[in-house]
Amino acid sequence: MIKSLAFKIRKALVIATSAAVALTGLTATPAAAAADFAAANAFAYVSGSVSTDAASNDVTLPEGASSISFNRQFNLGADFFTNNVGKKITLKTSITGPDGTVLGAGYSIGGSPSFRFCVTNGACDFSTWDKSELVVKNTHTNGSISAFNYVNRQSTSMNMMSQPEPLPAGKYTISTKIQSDGVDVAVDEVQTNIVTGWGTNSYSIEGSTITPAAAAININFFAQMCVDSAKLQVGDVVTPELYINDQKKNLNGGMTRFETRDGSAPNPRMGGNSSTATVTQDDIDFGLAAGINTNQDSITAGSPYALKAKLLDQDGNDVSGDCAPAAPSKPTITAQGQTLTVSPGAVKFGDMVQCDFYSAADLTKVLKTSMAMSNMPNTPETCSYDNAPGGVTYVVKTTGFYAGVPGPQSEASDPVLVAAPGYTLNPAVSGGDKGGDISVVSNSVSAVSGATSVRLISDSTGALRLSTVSQSVQCPPCGASSATATLEKTTTNGLASTFAGTGSVTMTTAGGSFPNAAWYGAGDKWTLAGQNITFGGNGSTFTYKLMQGTYGAAATTSLEVAASVFEATCSSLGAGYTTKPNAQSISVLITPISAPTAKQLYNLSCYKPTALSSTTTNLVTPVIVTIDNATTVNVVKVLGENSNVANATNTAFSASNSASGTATALTIFVTKRLITDIAIVNNMTTESGSIASREIVRVAADLSSTTTANGWVTSGTTLANEPAVIVPQINDGSFYVMQRVASADFKLMKVTATGAASTAVSITHDKAADMVNYNLSWPAGLQSGSLANVSVQASTATKLTMLSVNTTTGAGKASEIASYVVSPGVGLFSATVVDAATKDVSWWFSNTAADTGKISIYKWRDPMFVKPVGPVPAVTSKNLEYATNTPAAGTKVTFTGTNLDLATAVKFGTVAATLGTKTATSLEVTVPAGTGTVAITIESANGNGAGGNFTYVGATKVAQTVTLDAGANTATVGDADRTLSATVAMTGYTAVPSLTYSSTTASVCTVTGTKLKFVNKGTCSVKATQAGSSWTAEGVATKDITVAGPDAQTITIKAPSAGEKLIGPDGFFVYPSTNSGQPLSIRFDTPSVCKKGTFAANHVINVKTGTCKVTVSAAGNAQWAAGSSTLTYTVGKAGTTAITDAGNVNAPVILNGNGTKTNVLSEVVSWKKSTGALTVSSRGVWVGPITATATFKIGSKSYTCSLKYGTLKAASATSVKGFPATSALCGGSSSTDKAALAALKKITEPVVVKIVVVRELRDPAKYATKGQKVTRAVYVTIG
Questions:
Q1: Block means of pLDDT (10 residues each) for the chain, length 1279 residues?
Q2: Which are the contacts of 1146, defined by CB distance < 8 A and separation ≥ 6?
Q3: Which backbone phi and psi does 5 adopt, to 5 degrees?
Q4: For residue 25, what pLDDT is reported?
């Protein structure tokens, strides 16, 4: 059931008062008659909070409990501090569930401890926002540790109104261990002078009847009830009565509150506390509701406690009514393109309206649900359905809600049609079968219904089709999006029915972008992969979801890899590398890459913050990886760098259709760039800089790689004029690549198995006058590098044709041009695929003339095709499909077919073969030398026939068989180094071993000579290689060893900005983090250049020019290896470059409410609840004016107030000074300050306050001398 956000806030505010209510000592009055109680439908919501024995670490939950909380405080005496001087004190907390295991995944677990250690005179040290720990000083004599912990089920969606599943019933146990330098300290007053100061336990449960479990002490009930307007008159006085087990409870004004039900009311009641409500006309017109709460003490575990209630007028008459709103009036729906907008009909007594969209042809299936909302204040609420699939006539019904209670649906709106997207051809195609003609293959090819994205992926025999249906729930209620991808295999006239066993395979992901697909192996295996994001109370969780299978079978395997695994991979590239393109990102950019390799390859994007001329931004370094299992990602090849030579990289991939051993499986065009600045002009991002290099990287089937440094030549010299490289998705070892120099200006160059690309030739278009500003692209499918002509797609916004380009001259011969008008929309699809045997090109597209729910395939005949004038040779089979690239004399192939006696020539690609014996049904030819996969053409006077494809697999060499001995299949980090050995054998010859050993998983194990060392846990892959020669083939043997041990710990330190690198007495702050969550320690390695400041452990002060080194370390444990990272930068001379420190919103410092001053980085902040006073003072050496601005939000209202202070004259030159403000923040006389101060006094729940302090630094000895401008944000939690 959907509950409105406003209602959840109201509920939270009332429950927050339960602790106060529990102290009022309520008494019971005699039982009431059950017949007088309000009906169940008069309650919008009933729940209870159960307090349990505070002295116990166990809480037993009954069925249905939604959350549990533990509060603890430990008071520390003098003996404790004497025994632990110099030691770091921490608090280790865990919560065990009913099954005896520590709670983890699937639960939201909150809370972190705070530490307060004091000296005799009352001055105290506090733990900071970023470290839940404190070191004992020899002056400490007393103190405390406080911890609040809560648990509830983690929500599976980002829906703010949905409720998580209840917690499993049973016993939950909290374990809190005080630790001194990581060693448990007993909570024993005699031994260590530690006592438990106080503790509370409670749990929440919904429903009008609650049966508390063991150790329960009291229950605080809350009910939201509705008044029937038909029973009211103006001036009536409504009074609620509440009963527990039929015993009436005494209520006072603090236990009841009244509010207006209808969200459209112009002057609603605001829910103020009152024991009665005097009825107004607005109450009758817009509805009245009462919120009631009461406490039940002295309860008995296992006994039910039932809440009942009455709403009575001054005469004792029942005035309660149904909380469900009336049915809304008929809604209105309109269509603008593929966006549907609904004006909901009026709904009486509701606070929210839900819209359900249907096809007019089926009112039983909801296609989309969204909530009515207003984008601007005082504007009507509307619902919308963006990107509604076309070709559907829609209607909408609406439902009113009050506090999550739905009323009946409205009648259906009038229908509205969303036109289907597609191409309308005009004129119709010729339908001919001559070279260049377009004909209709089919208008009834199946399409995936509702697909929002469709594309073709080249494979070794044509293409795969990937169709994705995306679904999302509009905000509110902000449901998690999902994407269901369907993978199918194309044929020349439709789809293969046997692909993946059943014709198709599907995979669904949630919360992320569309899934991707690729193939691997011998072109017989596929991968579907996509982002899976779970939204929950502990933030969002990213995993990369994989599904794999074969072309021929239905069986699949699945795997999910956590974001932390990829983060560790990027971190291994060096300091600063991350998977995040920006700080707010929660996903990882990784896509599968097709290639004939044993393992699927992936392109992982790693980013590094890079300082440019006017900004700092994260620039990408692509990395080719394999995913071996859920925790192991291995780097195959790093394709870029981030240095003063190159800092960003573009890539383009082309996969070989088949490869093995050291043959190239994947060819990558790598353009390394040096970006100097990025600007946004007219909402377009513009990069400045130059091209650093153009490399061709070739990854072999065995995952070794080579790099051609100067891979190709272009006319470009800067980023702005560098031609784009357009690469076909698949090749046969050699292939052609296009450069796009400018609009309608393209060049063609050839790439072979080694070396640089050929000199590019310009491509011409013989029908360019009919296609102004055309674009060229490659169709899907295989085209050999041995072809005399290749097919490219030429297109404009309204026209499409296929261009046969002469690979020597660049001259392009166009086919028939298809002209069309496009109806845009979600799911619009157009793609082409070339047939490697015939060079005909199929056009798959959304055709408005296709059958309903189907798509079309049209076909261009190769424009070089000459229609036969009589019988032509036709091949049905041949006895040989492959040969070496230098076949021995006499290697022959025999064709079987018809009309073969008419053959005048046979060509393998462009190379003529020697004809042998021929008859009408048989033809023998001698195979010529060649490379790759080539098409065979049998020429005759009447026309040409196709002989299929022929593959050259390389010269035959003597095989060398290597047997590797690397010891046992398992190992542990820290084991003694192993000595590797191997043997080599050859059939018919005596092998001469010349072996080399290497590790293909350097992050797990390393090899030096013959010594194998295990350095991290994971899968260690070690390889023995016997080099090949002119007559022997290379021999390789591999072995995988599973290595156990702790996980690698990655520590990340953000590099300082330009201003932070300068000499300055006030310094700056570093914010290190670790993937392990282990405590961090900071060491200043060059204190003569940069030293630790006085304000916090992460306070850095640059004292002279030179190289500064700061090392951050974390100890290891059973799970994590010890780790460290060093921040290195050059300290510059003092200057005026500004410093902006964004702080850390995720770790606010907690302030108590008694006005105690707390150090927060360079600021000192306090808050006194009784007066609302929020004070701030700054600390530093240099003086100058200071402005502090506080912003915070309570409910839906935001508050901001500012204050100016500081020292405006010369002062002591070197000492650290305090700069207190003369008044409190929000203490001014303006209405804004008064409203903010009032809000600060009334805070009942934790509120995060952001305080931005701007200091204009002046030399304390010479005030006229200006220094840096420092802007620093600090965050505190109050309430």
A1: 37 35 34 66 92 87 90 88 92 89 73 89 86 91 89 55 75 90 73 71 91 91 94 95 91 80 85 88 94 90 94 94 95 91 92 92 89 75 87 92 93 92 95 94 92 92 92 53 91 94 94 88 94 64 91 94 94 93 83 96 96 91 96 96 95 93 95 92 83 96 95 87 94 94 90 93 96 96 92 97 96 97 89 93 96 94 87 88 66 92 91 93 90 84 86 69 94 94 78 89 94 93 86 86 90 92 92 90 94 92 95 89 92 93 88 90 91 91 92 90 86 83 88 90 90 92 89 92
A2: none
A3: -60, -40
A4: 32
Cα separation, 286 vs 265, whole angstroms:
6
How far is the CA of 438 from the CAs of 858, 895, 946, in angstroms? Answer: 7, 31, 20
State the DSSP string of 1180-1243.
Answer: ESSBEEEEEEEEEEETTEEEEEEEEEEE-S---SSS-EEEE-SS-BT-SSSHHHHHHHHHHHT-
**Nearest CA-CA partner of 982 in 1035, 1042, 1043:** 1035
Cβ–Cβ < 8 Å for 419, 824: no
Contact 289, 263 (CB under 8 A): no
pLDDT at position 1047 = 85
Closest residue by Cα to residue 360 from 333, 381, 387: 333
| Helices within 1029-1082 (DSSP H only) | none
Among 1252, 1259, 1251, 1104, CA closest to 1181? 1259
Task: In whole angstroms, give the CA distance from residue 716 to residue 708.
Answer: 19
DSSP characters over 791-854: EEEEE-SSEEEEEEEETTT--EEE-PPEEEEEE--TT--EEEEE-TTT--EEEEE-BTTSPTTE
Paired residues of 506 in beta bridges: 486
Q: Count other Cβ atoms within 10 Å, centred on residue 965.
A: 13
Q: Tell me the two tokens of residue 986.
A: 């050859």
State the residue for tokens 């000199």.
759
Alpha-helical runs (H) found in 531-631: 563-571
The kind and range of the H/E element at 686 are strand 684-700
- The DSSP code for 1086 is -
pLDDT at position 3: 36
3-state secondary structure of 258: strand
Residue appearing with tokens 């951050």: 1112
Q: What are phi and psi of 1232, to 5 degrees?
A: -65, -45
Instruction: Give phi and psi for 1088, each to the nearest 5.
Output: -75, -20
3-state helix, strand, coil split of the chain in percent (to 5) is: 5, 50, 45
Tokens of 420: 């289907």
pLDDT of residue 609: 93
Is the N-terminal amide bond of 477 cis, ω within 30° of 0?
Answer: yes
CA distance linking residue 1020 with residue 5, whole number of Å: 52
**pLDDT reported for residue 855:** 95
Q: Can you read off the two tokens belonging to residue 1190?
A: 């506080």
Q: Are 1003 and 635 in contact (CB under 8 A)?
A: yes
- pTM, whole model, 2 decimals? 0.56
Cis peptide before 592, with omega less than 30 degrees from 0? Answer: no
Sign of the torsion angle spanned by Cα atoms 736, 741, 742, 744: negative
Are 737 and 728 in contact, with CB atoms under 8 Å apart? yes
CB atoms closer than 10 angstroms to residue 188: 10
Tokens of 1103: 């004292």
